[in-house]
User: Which sequence fits this backbone?
């Protein structure tokens, strides 16, 4: 879908590389420009026998890596040559860093007038926190992402990192929109995408709920965060967990009938948080092992699913049928998860391994 599109990916860690990978999944040629020492994510998470982290390889598969020292004249010259042939520049420096390296927006526009430049940063390119460092947990905290998540006693940080992955999607959406405009009007774009603001963009519902509750955090007190007996995670007798999402009355009624508690049907609309009903449902689930609950609710249309292990997810018939995820076994096992979507009736295509190249060969190819 993006065949012929050239992307320069200056990003590191997770958000930018994940965005670049999505563009590569859609057919773009993505060249990841790393400093001489490489992306620091090469050392984050479980490492393979070659010393490079598996997480780094997973999020950068499908790209070509070239190492350039943008603090040196030769590196800047090579980068300028690549920019002249690029359609998209994706970077995640702190605000002002790219200009200090010799590439202010004016020079970028001179090198490629219709360039789509996407700048990913923690808090945005302007404002009092623009230069402040941070990571996912900080952006979630400031952006409201921890307002209603977790237990009643404390917020809980999500894994994998929500702000990182959400901002990758936000960047791709903005880039694709800018490319559509470029196709109509012939001009590039400057996209200022903030990880914190990406989180904030999702918070209209929980913040409104909190404001109407007098500012309370509301963890485990609302319909979608554990306050309703019919929409909650429950432990089973063998230490596993199940999810129940029976929001619609028909699903809740089907569940109640299947477990022999028709007296619960009329209690679905009890005031939130439904602590008494939650305790009763929890006691029910705690009385049987996970396998017993799967057998009991098999075929019952009540929005029930077990909480699976990684191995169980990869073996699940639905996951296998769709072809998005698979395990690579061996001494260094990997869970390879591909693009989330079928295009023209075809499942997501496998990604080639991360490739290495030198600046000279790339410049020749892009000339």
Assistant:
């Amino acid at each position: 879908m993006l065949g012929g599109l050239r992307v320069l990916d200056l990003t590191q860690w997770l958000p930018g590389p994940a965005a670049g990978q999505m563009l590569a999944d859609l057919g773009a040629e993505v060249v990841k420009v790393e400093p001489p020492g490489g992306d620091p994510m090469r050392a984050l998470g479980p490492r393979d026998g070659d010393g490079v982290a598996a997480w780094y390889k997973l999020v950068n598969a499908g790209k070509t890596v070239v190492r350039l020292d943008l603090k040196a004249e030769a590196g800047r010259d090579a980068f300028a040559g690549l920019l002249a042939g690029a359609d998209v520049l994706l970077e995640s420096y702190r605000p002002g860093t790219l200009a200090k390296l010799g590439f202010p927006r004016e020079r970028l526009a001179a090198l490629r007038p219709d360039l789509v430049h996407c700048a990913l940063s923690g808090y945005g390119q302007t404002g009092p926190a623009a230069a402040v460092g941070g990571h996912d947990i900080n952006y979630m905290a400031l952006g409201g992402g921890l307002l209603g998540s977790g237990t009643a006693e404390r917020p809980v940080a999500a894994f994998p990192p929500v702000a990182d992955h959400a901002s990758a999607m936000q960047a791709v959406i903005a880039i694709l929109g800018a490319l559509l405009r470029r196709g109509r009007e012939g001009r590039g774009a400057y996209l200022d995408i903030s990880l914190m603001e990406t989180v904030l963009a999702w918070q209209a519902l929980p913040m409104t709920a909190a404001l109407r509750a007098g500012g309370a955090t509301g963890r485990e007190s609302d319909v979608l965060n554990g306050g309703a007996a019919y929409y909650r995670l429950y432990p089973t007798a063998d230490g596993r967990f199940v999810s129940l999402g029976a929001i619609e009355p028909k699903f809740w009624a089907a569940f109640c009938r299947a477990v022999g508690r028709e007296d619960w049907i009329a209690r679905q609309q009890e005031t939130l948080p439904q602590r008494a009903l939650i305790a009763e449902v929890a006691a029910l689930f705690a009385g049987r092992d996970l396998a017993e609950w799967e057998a009991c609710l098999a075929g019952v249309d009540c929005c029930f699913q077990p909480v699976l292990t990684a191995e169980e997810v990869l073996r699940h018939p639905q996951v296998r049928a769709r072809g998005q995820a698979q395990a690579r076994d061996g001494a260094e096992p990997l869970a390879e998860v591909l693009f989330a979507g079928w295009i023209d009736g075809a499942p997501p295509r496998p990604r080639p391994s991360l490739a290495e190249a030198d600046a000279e060969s790339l410049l020749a190819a892009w000339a």
Q: What stands out?
A: The longest helix spans residues 162-185. The first strand starts at residue 6 and ends at 9.
